[in-house]
Design goal:
GO terms for molecular function: cellulase activity. By secondary structure, the protein is mainly alpha-helical. It has one domain: Glycosyltransferase (Alpha/alpha barrel). It has 20 helices and seven strands. The strands form three sheets. A three-stranded antiparallel beta sheet has the order 1-2-3. A hairpin with a 5-residue loop joins strand 4 and strand 5.
Length: about 500
């Protein structure tokens, strides 16, 4: 028979490839990174940021207990939570956003995480346990522990902290709508994460979220106004608080399915900036995230009164797509989405999460995005997101991973106190405030590897300097990792790694 013919054999091979499921070919040909390994490490990172009494199953073992008297200055228990970045301060605003994005990652992609789902939930709960403490008193939220100015004058391990643990709060007379509404979003989104696995805890979170949002909405004002000398320029609320009110209401609408929040969004959406054209999604500006979240209610749940949010979300997407009409996003020569020199990768991780999440909603609804006549499919959105993640993991002009501990070449001198100073087991004696700078200024690699930490990243020309003093490039942050968790879960599943 002619089946032994090399030409015919090649024909059958090509025919098989042509009719094979796209995903199967895709997996064999394009999975250039171990997204599952990156997912594991991106979640592990949060253990290195823990404040408080560490549990017996702590995996980042070079970290020890710290901040065990936090809150005592105000006679409240504020032990726990996360240090936001490379310093020893607990900032409530970015911590709440981190919590919301970890929760959203689990809500959309937790079903794909397999063994990492438990670790992701643990990371969320470490934050929500703290946020429940910070919101225990009605119409009061404790929004910061530690003085950033005095902390930044020191280079010391959190285990050695001797700087003043100043406690800052907002209340009726000193409002902070932005941080309060973000805290409500964090609690509401986390309530969805725990709804099935721990319904009692979920109810506590949701009840608190409702109360905190009511406080945020009733007593309006930016927390930066009253606490400017403490929170600026670190985490000023530059975008105002309207975006957080829309974001918080969107999460409460999703968590409660109550007509109350749907009516609130319909009545206040325009005044809260639903049609804002700003395409930056970050710990400060939530407009883009709120648009994507609310578009799901229309696309998937068929809430017709929210149909405008499909258009708002599409506008955001069109601003990101390279070469499309209305595109207004800058990319580096190497292809990295670029917003600003200071910790640019935080915008990359938050944006890629919105891309894969919106692609999921569009796919379920059998919809596409129309950018001035140019049709953008869900697959295109996923391709853009994958390219950004691949750049972060090593496909870049520097040929290095920007996730610590991933790949063969990654940042070794990150701007992070506990990573750069010897651990307690290696150096039991206290390292005081000023002495730590000896370690900070050395050229030696950090002795403790903060596995999974995503640093600030390269500049607009794809250049990266691995120096501790350059915090804009070498400092990691919880809010950079949080949205990446969801994107990596999606990619790991798509390429058959989970």
């Amino acid at each position: 028979m002619a089946s032994s013919s090399p030409v015919l054999h090649l024909f059958f091979v090509l025919l098989t490839l042509f009719f094979a499921p796209t995903s199967a070919v895709h997996h064999r040909r394009i999975a250039s990174h171990n997204y599952r390994d990156a997912l594991t490490k991106s979640i592990l990172f949060f253990e290195g940021q823990r404040s408080g009494k560490l549990p017996p199953n702590q995996r980042m073992t070079w970290r020890r207990n710290s901040g065990l008297s936090d809150g005592s200055a105000m006679k409240v228990d504020l032990v726990g939570g996360y240090y936001d970045a490379g310093d020893n301060i607990k900032f409530g605003f970015p911590m709440a956003f981190t919590t919301t994005m970890l929760s959203w990652s689990v809500i959309e992609f937790g079903g794909l995480m397999k063994n990492e789902l438990g670790n992701a939930k643990t990371a969320i709960r470490w934050a929500t346990d703290y946020l429940l403490k910070a919101t225990a008193q009605p119409d009061t939220i404790y929004v910061q522990v530690g003085d950033a100015n005095t902390d930044h004058a020191c280079w010391e391990r959190p285990e050695d902290m001797d700087t003043q643990r100043t406690v800052l709060k907002i209340d009726r007379n000193h409002p902070g709508t932005d941080v309060a509404a973000e805290t409500a979003a964090a609690l509401a989104s986390a309530s969805l994460v725990f709804r099935k696995s721990d319904p009692a805890y979920s109810r506590v979170l949701l009840k608190r979220a409702i109360r905190v949002f009511a406080f945020a909405d009733k007593y309006r004002g930016s927390y930066s106004d009253g606490l400017k000398s403490y929170v600026c320029p670190f985490y000023c609320s530059y975008s105002g608080y309207q975006d957080e009110l829309l974001w918080g209401a969107a999460w409460l609408q999703k968590a409660t399915r109550s007509r109350t929040y749907l009516n609130y969004i319909q009545a206040n959406g325009v005044t809260l900036g639903a049609d804002e054209s700003d395409n930056t999604f970050s710990w400060d500006n939530k407009h883009a995230g709120a648009k994507i979240l609310l578009s799901k209610a229309f696309l998937v749940q068929k809430v017709q009164s929210l149909h405008d949010y499909k258009g708002h979300a599409d506008s955001f997407i069109c601003s990101l797509v390279p070469g499309a009409p209305y595109s207004q996003t800058q990319y580096t020569p190497g292809g990295l989405l670029f917003k600003m020199d200071n910790s640019n990768l935080q915008y990359v991780t938050s944006t890629t999460f919105l891309l894969v999440t919106y692609a999921k909603f569009l796919t379920k609804a059998h919809k596409v995005v129309n950018c001035g006549g140019a049709i953008v499919t869900p697959r295109r959105l996923r391709t853009i997101a994958k390219k950004q993640v691949d750049y972060l993991l090593g496909d870049n002009p520097m040929k290095m991973s920007y996730m610590v501990g991933y790949g063969s070449r990654y940042p070794k001198r990150i701007h992070h106190r506990s990573s750069s100073l010897p651990s307690l087991s290696a150096h039991p004696a206290k390292i005081d405030c000023g002495s730590g700078f000896t370690f900070m200024h050395t050229e030696n690699p950090n002795p403790n590897i903060l596995v999974g930490a995503v640093v600030g990243g390269p500049d607009g020309h794809d250049q990266y300097t691995d120096e501790r003093s350059d915090y804009s490039q070498t400092e990691p942050a919880t809010y950079t990792n949080a949205p990446l968790v969801g994107t990596l879960a999606y990619l790991a599943h798509s390429f058959g790694q989970l």
